[in-house]
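The aim of this short unit is practical: by the end, you should be able to scan a pair of folded records and say something sensible about each. We start with the first protein, listed as its amino acid sequence and then its structure tokens.
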Amino acid sequence: MYASREDIGYDFGDDSKVGSKPIKPNPNIDGGWAWMIVFSSFLVHILIMGSQMALGILNMEWLEEFNQSRGLTAWVSSLSMGITLIVGPFIGLFISMCGCRMTAIIGGILNALGWILSAYASNVHYLFLTFGVTAGIGSGMVYLPAVVMVGQYFQKRRALAQGLSTTGTGFGAFLMTALLKYLCTEFGWRNAMFIQGAISLNLCVCGALMRPLSPKDLSEKSPVRSDSEENQEKALSHSTETIKSNGVLSEEPEKKEEATNEEVLESVQHTETGGNSRSGRNMHGLRILKTVSQLTLTVRKGFALWYSSYFGAASLFTNRVFVAFIIWALFAYSSFVIPFIHLPEIVKQYNLSSQDNIFPLTSIIAIVHIFGKVILGIISDLPCISTWNVFLMANFTLVTCILTLPLMQTYVGLAVVCALIGFSSGYFSLMPVVTEDLVGTKNLANAYGIIICANGISALFGPPFAGWIYDITQKYDFSFYIAGLLYMVGIIFLLIQPCIQKKQPRQKSTEEAQV
């Protein structure tokens, strides 16, 4: 089963056609500072995604502390995971206006604040606001820039780079599980959250490492221009013109406003040379005015780019395979999250706590997850291998493991299934690559924001649904079966849509021949 990029079916054209002029590549693309971006993204995945994968430890503490139902308590973890991903499209707007670096630094401060405030929680509903919403939004503001920056800095080894950076999720799940267990045992869960909040301030350092590429560097990243990119740019320019006519963005007033600011500033500078103290005050005021004006223009341009991506003539939703990708994401992520949240409780029910304490099942998933991301990334970068096919095979393996897990009631059986879950879930490193192949580098931030938003909805409702099913049946079996079946529906959408896309041109040619 081999599917090239043409088989996936782009709406904007065929990416395989070679363009005209090669451009000298930038040394920072696929090398140099690009590896610092990978390191920064790796740390972000440890501190954000790794911490969220270890929330099963805190979930048990919250159950004992607040004495609420499993379904209600699971909403705390689900809100944090879900909101981290759901805010993706809106974080894309922040990135368009402020850039990845500033967005990530602000997000790091907000995430740390959420952890620290949660240490003073008096009930579960307080945690909904502080940990679920505040820390969740902060996590989203760091996570999306970390993924987007790796996509911008790499061209030839994108899958490997994304694989290496996202292995931080596996390392983080292993390290944070052990750390939170130790902190909760030694200091209690409240102090553990306070300490974790202090550790999360390192996200600001990760954001500072995200040095932006200049527009020239971004253009040099794609030395070979394809017809699809040209068509997409035309469509985007057309949508921008539509926006201008609707009053969202007007280019001529911007130029006039900038020119006016420059003329006034030069005249005041000339007056200032005369030694007038009043002109100095005028100069200071006009500097402030010019800064505010430039900031306003930046916001308007960023909003126009964000608006055109979602609602313009070149809307991402006109790409049918991308829409199928969104539907898949709505069902997929909960199947991966549910085991992390509820496995500690399942182990406790099966009286396997003594064995699990020696080597936790969640740690097995985390460790194998690391190798899965790297190995799948290396395989996908091979010239004879389709990234799309590797992505699909990993999904089939994962859904099979989810459906099989309730049948295992021994530690060895659960460990084997958890290892397979960890390896097959390594396809997460391929998601940005597949997304970029579908929509292009320029739309990666907005497109991937939509994908992780769909994942967030899945993560938001998955664990509470599993807890609610347990409260009714006193078993987790049906939770895994239902999640696995919904996951299979999403995979079927991925399989059907490329076939439809591939058949459409043939139908058109047949009709033309009849005419």
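Turning to the second protein, read its sequence before its tokens, just as you did above.
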Amino acid sequence: MKFEDLLLEIGGFGRFQILILFILCLPRINLPMHFLLHNFLAATPSHRCAIPHQEAFVNLTVEEVLLISIPREPDGTFRSCEMFSQPQFQLLLNSSLQPENDSIIQPCQQGWVYDHSQFTSTISTQWDLVCEQRGLNQATATFFFIGVTMGAVIFGYLSDRFGRKAMLLLSLVCSVVFGMLSAASVSYSMLAITRTLTGVALSGVSLIVLPLGMEWVDIQHRTLTGILTSIFWSVGNMLLAMVAYLVRDWHWLLVAVTGPCLLSIVCLWWVPESARWLIANGKVKQAHRHLLRCARINGRKDFTVSPEEDMPLIMYAQRIVLQWEYKKPGGSYSYISLFRTPVLRKISLCSGAVWFGVAFSYYGMSMNLTGFGLNMYLSQFVFGIIEIPAKVIMYVLVNRVGRRQSQAWALILTGLCIGANVIIPKPFTSLRSVVAIMGKGFSEAAFTTVFLYTSELYPTVLRQNGMGYTSFVARLGGALAPLVFLLDEVWRSLPEVTYCGVAVCCGSVAFLLPETLNVRLPEGIEDIE
């Protein structure tokens, strides 16, 4: 007797599962609002050196003061990070004669003046993270994803050890606490620390939401579940654009994107612990109670008529527990367990490579795609919309051609699109844009599939450990992706060639993984081996 047999008896996709999935989609919407927040949180508006007041400027207009105080770029715009050491009054007579002596040019001495027409305040304007300090501005995103990487390891283990729901609740509570502390930061150091801890907490949400929903759904609806939760990520992308457009101050923006976690915490009250996890850990009575609740809500009232009619469910659950206890080599599992047995070791190595390739190419394309010439809010909104068709198409493909083929070809085609733009001449801008957008779609399709595929590859007793390990590898790929742009000093097209090569190679590795279409979710390691 397998858990899927229990689901068939109590309803594998009824009102109970729909309610759970709807509630779990709430924190899923909130994730991209933090993961992509850096675009708005650390936005750097136009700026110039602050010019100290002098009596000689009394009769001059603002434009004339700028003209004699700040050097210009070749295109005629004022430089952002430099000023003249002394006013160049001769420029009032002929502004086209820019001084050629660099010795009279110096870095900004009195701070900066920012254009506040688009942003009331960002962390760049708050702590002058521009010019020589612009590296610290970009580092805030790095700190956040370092936290996400750490959280992938921590919560992957804890959710297998202490349960999905408890760790999801802990993640959400910590996300609220550290998110609000980030909004109240009084120094850059405080912001860096709290954003890192926010990344740790949100990593737990990212890891747990999909498997918790998946473990309550039957085989026929697993794909729909995975695609549905993924689409809500895109909805979060679009909502981020709207929230950022309405809230232009970084303190209140952090409050606005963190606040919805409170709603998720309240709604989580109605989400039960995974019955699969409860049975796998010997908590049969709790699992039995949740299974009966599922049957009742789904209209299978014949299971609750009398205690005697409940006995089959108890016997099924106890039989599964006895089987798992008999098969468990040590009684508990860790990340080392992912590599102890031959088949599981192969799955872990191959899935790790696929995740690395997916994240590496996804963030490489996202950082290299220049957009559509729209303002940043509209661009963010459009990028969210673009992801949805890719996910809907993958919903059809993974059910028709299978997970393995869909995963492999989505990632390979991502690489080929990146490589095609190396060959297409620069003047063909329209064609290059179309190919780049297609690549973005394939990349998003690969990311959508890998979440679903991985959750089906690992057994219940190791599923969160497996998701934690692969998420950790993915974050490494995401962290390395921007560094590859530095390779353009060696050869201008080397970054694109690198993204292409990694995507194609890692996509080919996906062919080595087993197919999971219409296959029961494995419960123990024996089911894998």
